[in-house]
Amino acid sequence: MTSNSIRQKEIAEKTGYSINTVSLALKGSPRISEETRLKIMECARQLNYIPNVVARSLVQKKTNTIGIILTELMNPILTETAQEIEQLLKQAGYNMMLMITNFSPEQEAEALDVLVSRQVDGIMMYPLVRANFSKIRAMHDQRFPIVLLAGGEYDSPSDAVYMNRQAGAYKAVSHFIQDGHRRIGFIRGAMNDEEKQNGYTSALQDNGIDFDPGLVSIIQGDGYKAGYASVQSLYEKGKATAVLCSKDHIALGAMRWCREQGIRVPEDIAFIGFDDIAASSFADVPLTSVQYDVKSVTKKATELLLKRIEEKEHKVGAPLQKIAIDPKLIIRQS
Predict the structure, then answer these.
(1) What is the pTM for the complete model shown?
(2) Has residue 255 been placed in a domain?
(3) Contact, 38 vs 94, CB < 8 A?
(4) Which of 174, 124, 173, 175 is closest to 152 using CA atoms?
(5) What is the CA 281 to chain-centroid distance, rounded?
(6) Is 209 within 8 Å of 177 (Cβ atoms)?
(7) Which of 106, 91, 94 is nearest to 68 (CA)?
(8) Rounded Cα gap, residues 87 and 75, in angstroms
(9) pLDDT confidence of 318, banded at 50, 70, 90?
(10) Residue 179: how many other CB atoms lie within 10 Å
(11) Start and end of every HTH lacI-type domain (predicted)?
(12) Is 216 within a domain?
């Protein structure tokens, strides 16, 4: 009995349906009602069921298509990443199929399933940290080429090429400290910013500054409005004299609030952002930012994925590659 047959039997036992019903539902058969199909698919997702198409795609003729999974498209860094990857893939004779997860673990799992069902030759993705790592690991174990574009700092389930965001935050906070700041705030998003906070706290600790949770603001969203709304509490009562923001958009929104209140940047409060988007250098006070080197990440990730695809023997259990790109701190006037 194959491993997939065993997994289908497990799904049947958990849902109470027959193995034949489970098999038909997983194949999308119109003979199965939508309610039944949804129950079976949800159970399959929880069990990280990987369809046989993964194995079949490895022996069938290549489709010369690469799946790309991004968390959003509003972020200019991710838009630039998609454009860079598309150009690199074109040069190598591949097409790109783009999926967006909107920061949803369910949509991320679905995107993986859709791309596998389309028999793409490999996948590059920005994962929601840990959300579907078990599923990605199961795909990797079945020799499906996947390169992550973030999350390499963690127990990565697959190859990863990523910007070392912890090192970037460490550099930013160290720069503040060198400028004499001791009350340093941090505005971060609710998801995927753990490594940045680790860098923030490490820099404080290494410089003998106690971590104050009151100086960390965790916000929903990462746009201009979020930064505008979140900085007031850090500035009032002399709490923070400098603020690291997990995105440039947040920092630019926070600086706008300061300007409206007559608070001088950087004389009264200083800011550093993340990603070094184009708008940062054109702000009223040009923003210091941790640069995201899109070209380095995309070039190395594309090369690694194509290497995995072209390898004659992709050995199960072979050492994963984790390539960390060290970010630069672009110092301006903020």
Answers:
(1) 0.77
(2) yes
(3) no
(4) 124
(5) 25
(6) yes
(7) 94
(8) 19
(9) low
(10) 11
(11) 6-60
(12) yes
